[in-house]
Amino acid sequence: MEIKESIIEKLKNRFPESVVEISDFRNDLSITVKKESLLDLAKFLKDDSELLFVMCKDITAIDWATRKNRFSTIYNIYSFHLNINLRLKVNIDIDPAKVNSVVEIWPSAEWYERETFDMYGIVFENHPDLRRMYMPEGFQYHPLRKDFPVLGIPGSLPLPQKPE
Amino acid sequence: MEKIQNVYTDEKLFKKLLDDKNVTLEDTLENEMVINMGPQHPATHGVLRLVLRLDGETVIKVVPELGYLHRGYEKMAENMSFIEFIPHTDRLDYTATLCNNVAYVLAVEKLAGIEAPARAQWIRMIMGELARIAAHMIAIGTFAMDVGAVTMVMWTFRERERIQEIFDRICGARFTTSYTRIGGVAADIDGEALRMIKDFLDTFEPGLKDMDHLMLHNRIFIERLEGIGVLSREDAISLGVTGPNLRASGVAYDVRRAKPYLFYDQVDFNIPTYSEGDCLARYFLRGDEVRESVKILYQCLDKLPQGEVMANNPKNVLPGKTEVYSKMEELIHDFMLINQGINPPVGDVYFSAENPKGELGFYIVSNGSGQPWKMKIHSPSFCNLQAVTKICTGAMISDVVAIIGSLDPVMGEADK
Prior knowledge:
The structure holds 2 protein chains of 2 kinds.
Chain A: H1 2-14, E1 19-25, E2 28-33, H2 38-47, E3 55-63, E4 71-79, E5 84-92, E6 98-100, H3 109-120, E7 123-125
Parallel strand pairs in A: 2-5, 6-7
Antiparallel strand pairs in A: 1-2, 3-4, 4-5
Chain B: H1 2-9, H2 11-19, E1 32-37, E2 49-55, E3 58-65, H3 73-77, H4 86-90, H5 97-112, H6 118-146, H7 150-171, E4 180-181, E5 184-185, H8 191-216, H9 219-225, H10 233-238, H11 244-248, H12 255-258, H13 279-303, H14 321-326, H15 328-340, E6 347-354, E7 359-366, E8 374-378, H16 380-392, H17 397-407, H18 411-414
Antiparallel strand pairs in B: 1-2, 2-3, 4-5, 6-7, 7-8
Helix pairs in contact in B: 1-2, 5-6, 6-7, 6-13, 6-17, 7-8, 8-13, 13-17, 16-17
């Protein structure tokens, strides 16, 4: 408990404007931050000698479908020093669905961001190699968006021609 | 190789070759070649495709391409209830199905606030550790086979086969176990199964020793792997590598110790680590982990308590079949749970468990309905594969096979 409070305290002192929302559900701490201050905050979390969130475990997004800010990107980071998982959340709009890339801070983010781009169509700016991760090149849709049907869209994946 | 170098250093030879009209002097080593490895390649452990740029035999650049086994499990999870998704976790890391089952139900239980009875939790630990041994047996065997020691794979699969028989006895299936349920496990362990586990453990240790003798007195094997594919501690952390590969690079991070789930805080085991971070260290580490698993299993068998294997929580946990057929109340609950699913509170949780390949995490977002609003699978193979680019750059092409074997990715999990 104390560790979490000290993290929140630290972030609030350093970035009083940036922290939008803090939730602690089932002992999982997640902090929603403003899109503009993501990079500064991430750098601070990684480099501060008392926090040292050196490992980025996962990046993903949530499609809220009907909310005004349609997407949230989730950064799941871990500190060996404190032995704690922390989730950073950033709410972004669909137009433009853009957010700064954190590859410079956590190199492991490269593939996670590619996957998120593939699945949700969120563009990570300044990403070194933003290609699709799973879906084939030239696929036009982003499958994990809520408006993509589970059964797929007929004709979206070109199949090889039948031999005569 | 030497001959070609001689051509340039030895002036006489060079002149002679120049005069010879039948010889063309084109230095193949100066040319870069792009080679495509996989997706159908026996050494890539499934459908992993690597595009390599080679200078001679040295790898200059590697680009892994994933997605050949992408089945869209995250999308499917959003459209089925929590109970329905359990069989699909078998197909993630298909070498250690039970570990996936356990990790998934624990994540859902964390979200819904259910606690399984003690016996069920100990059984989950037993099954998880058995699955870990089975998965490491595959990892060790196929890794040795990749670098040319074909006998090893026969020996490890022989041991693994005995574990599969235990699974067959307990779960009714060898591979697609789907053994765990939300709030417990599907069936209790009987005395015969416990005896089989004990028999297996007693005879497994000598088998491991034999394997050690086979591999560690093999100079070719050692020299093939020592100092190859070094992943430094800093790189391992920054690239998000988890599991045995991280521990072989000197980070003593194990989810079972860092954030104990089930009853891992009540058993005594070590976390083996190596500081070298090369292929050989990763090989040794898996062997050490198997021994620790044996240690844990003995303790689990000692401590296994009597009791129920499903929690008594009618709103969230499926009732037993006999009650469903004989009692009205249970029938209604069963109907509601199957049709509408358990309705966990609104919120999001992340739960991770230590799998043979690394840290398998489930991030589940619930909007209060019977289906998850979003489920993200943090698969260890995916994260470990990201290190391939780093390790393989500068290695020889024949080492690429050894490196992939030592990282031990399972594409069913990496591609989701």
